[in-house]
Amino acid sequence: MSDQLLDAPARASFRSGPLLVLLASALWGTTGTAASFAPAGASPLSIGAATMGVGGLLLLAIAGRSAFEVLRSGRPGLLVVGALAVAVYPLAFYSSMALAGVAIGTVVTLGSAPVFAAILERVVDGVRLDGRWAVSAALAVLGLLLITGGGWAGADANALLGALLGLLGGAGYVVYSWSASRMMRRGHGSRAVMGAMFGAGALVLLPVLALTGGPLLSSPSGLAVAGYLAVIPMGLAYVLFGAGLRHTSTSAATTLSLLEPVVAAILGVLVVGERLDAGAWFGTVLIGAGLVLVSTRR
């Protein structure tokens, strides 16, 4: 995509911040379905490292020289913090799901993100969040609980550690989103920021992939899954997400990203053959209502 498409001032509704974040979230929602086609021996850790490690290199390649301008800006603090958060997020998130189950890992990681974002923006940026955001976030998190609520039943001793890792993953997601937003406000383009930050994060994730990725990368199906995850829900989605962050606050963006589990649930029904109960379908409606509220904030 050209710089004119993603970095120039918005002139069409397609380029509005909330819509771009929603499009990115919809692509993220395909990751679970895609990962279900991975070889049986592929670990969640290797899938996460492949997705954001290889995808980070792709974002760096897309950004080209502009990413290195961010690296040479002389103010590396935000970039280092964001890159470390990029590395933490997939390792914590996928480990959380492996230990506590997909439901608990998803609820804690994605559900905690809007709360962490609100705290970060309030403490660091002095942003006051209105009642509209509070209602929209509450609806979305409640909907997320309803969609995945069955996963809490019978949780074993690993669930606590998994939940703690989920909190770490949620914090990582918020920190790299906030860091990217701050760098863009300093005048860097969205592609440059995402390329520099995720490219730096890949330096941590690729060694993890080298250590854990044997079963994933040794079969055609595993390579196909890793390739899809790196190009679509990582490469393309984060280009869109970065562009959306130019016109969307971190708290709003993390709330809008709760579209991801809705898409994942629907694809689970249509593609994987899973079934949702009435409570889960009601949860999708609540998330939809919350997303409408936050995306129409003025």
Low-confidence parts, pLDDT < 50 over ≥5 residues?
A: 1-6, 8-14
- Share of helical residues: over 70%
Helices, by number, come to 15
Q: Compute the gyration radius: what is it?
A: 18 Å
Structural class: mainly alpha
- The SSE order reads HHHHHHHHHHHHHHH
Beta-strand segment tally: 0
Q: Identify the overall geometry.
A: globular
Overall pLDDT, averaged? 83
Domain module tally: 1
Sheet-strand content, in percent, reads: under 5%
Characterize the biggest β-sheet: none
| N-to-C span | 28 Å
Model description:
- With 298 residues, the protein is mainly alpha-helical.
- It has one domain (14-295).
- 79% of the residues lie in helices and 0% in strands.
- The chain is built from 15 helices and no strands.
- Helix 4 (44-63) crosses helix 12 (220-245).
- The longest helix has 28 residues, at 158-185.
- The two termini are 28 Å apart.
